[in-house]
Amino acid sequence: MDKPLDLLQSRLDRLMRTAVSLGSLSAYGMLLGIQQISKNRLEIQQGPVYPALYRLDHRGRITSEWDESENNRTAKYYRLTAAGMRRLQTEVEKWNPIADVIAGIPGTTPEEV
Question: Which fold has domain 4-107?
Fold first, then answer.
């Protein structure tokens, strides 16, 4: 069984892979992407982002390159690798049925138990 910290890290990694699966993004762009995808219901702080980027890069899930940002500064942009996309698809396939079950729990009535 995963340790609690591992669970949190794996969820953050998945969120970041989901954001970057939509296109090449900077670290800050990923944070904004997660916020937009979640319809402003999730706001990730910058602190855990860079360790997550290191983990994803180290595991071959993302790759990066330096480029010029919109405000004419040099920034590192990340994109999903083929291995990262396969991993994301596998996790989503496993997660969706679980999420459906969890979403139904709060509305359960005594008669349904």
Answer: Arc Repressor Mutant, subunit A (1.10.10)
